[in-house]
Design brief:
Layout: H1 9-24, H2 29-50, H3 52-60, H4 71-76, H5 82-88, E1 105-109, E2 117-121, H6 123-139, E3 148-152, E4 162-164, H7 171-174, E5 180-184, H8 189-199, E6 203-206, H9 208-221, E7 230-233, H10 242-250, E8 253-260, E9 264-269, E10 276-278, E11 283-288, E12 300-307, E13 318-326, E14 338-345, E15 350-351, E16 357-358, H11 364-370, E17 373-380, E18 385-392, H12 398-412, E19 417-422, E20 437-439
Parallel strand pairs: 3-5, 3-6, 6-7, 7-8, 17-20, 18-19
Antiparallel strand pairs: 1-2, 4-5, 8-9, 9-10, 10-14, 11-12, 12-13, 13-14, 15-16, 17-18
Length: 446
Amino acid sequence: MRLPALPAGRPALLIALLHQFQESQYFPAEVLRARQLEQLAELLQHAFENTAFYRERLAAAGYRPGAQVDDALLERIPVLTRQEVQQAGTALHAAKVPAGHGAPRSVESAGSTGTPVTVRVTPLAQLLWEAITLREHEWHRRDVGARLAVIRFTPGLPAQGKAAPSWGPPLSWLYRTGPSAALNITTPVDQQARWLLEQRPTYLLTHPTNAMALAEWFVQKGERLPSLAQVRTISEALPAGLREACQEAWGASVADVYSSRETGYLSLQCPQSTLQHVQAESVIVEVLRADGSRCATGERGRVVATALHSFAFPLVRYDLGDFATVGAPCACGRTLPTLADIAGRVRNMLVLPSGQRLWPSIAGRELSRAAPVRQFQVIQDSLETIRVLLVAARPLAPAEERRVADLVRRALGHPFRISVEYHASIERSASGKFEEFKSEVAAGAA
């Protein structure tokens, strides 16, 4: 039978989840929170009964199996650090997993710190990942019959890239999609740009810093890519000016996604604004002040996540190492909590001699206009010194170096001593991420 289609198995489950998501995204806030706490109660009881690590941790927080779970209890549970996850090892492995979750598999996340964390995820958690992926496509009303280009880290991908007849699962399980093509992000930007000109995609999926480099290439070369409607960004915080750069280069919008290998999707950009909607059906996201209390709307703090379906490897109040700003209710009508921005990691914070920490906003577009800069990275070595690593078309003249140094000082807001180094390339991490700014100054050095 071809018409109507009769989905079965995994596609049918995905359609059922999408239907539920259509309703839950408009639940009153108190109803949504009550549903989250009900799911959290199941997770905590499972973790208490099946992991030595949480039996001790939850008991110390006053938890007893079968007791009511509320926000007060959640706040008493200590924040789980990355270091604790590494040290706990198999003590975080659940002795058993509910039958409906399926057999777990190991997933490693290095993040931008290069310090690996290995967790276990189940087919149920993967199903939720797929459903939220479909939700993101649905929110942005993409033309799935159009062409998709993907530039990210993909082990084993041929140097020239690889073409496919569809966008791949989960979308291709439900729709007849257009073709796609993938290229490794380790490919030089010049080659990436020429590959895009050959592909003529409607949508581009890549890392934000890579999108910025490509946009600058197109503007500098005077090339156009009229087919490109949207850039979908993953894995990194958005650099300053990226949305404007994509609009200038291609007339394309930006749709950002916030996720982690350990916890799954955390938030998706709203299709009507730049706010990020927390995916509350699968995760509880808290934004905390330095004293551990919760931030109010407009405040920036540390992101802590509880993966509500992490039954193979419970992650309760897991510190992701990221900072974000709590958003206000969104005008789109969705009642899912919001984040106004994801600022990045602690290592991406500038440390001033006064002890103040902040996230610098270094406009790469201004650097490339001041000098023939193709790529840059700014590293803080001490409270008074900054190194600027440059990949340039040629060594800069002294006046150009001074302009670059002045632009960096202005962006950092302090008269740092700045040195310039030239490199043939600045490598990304093993996962394809790139940090435009990082500080080597130890916490509390001021």
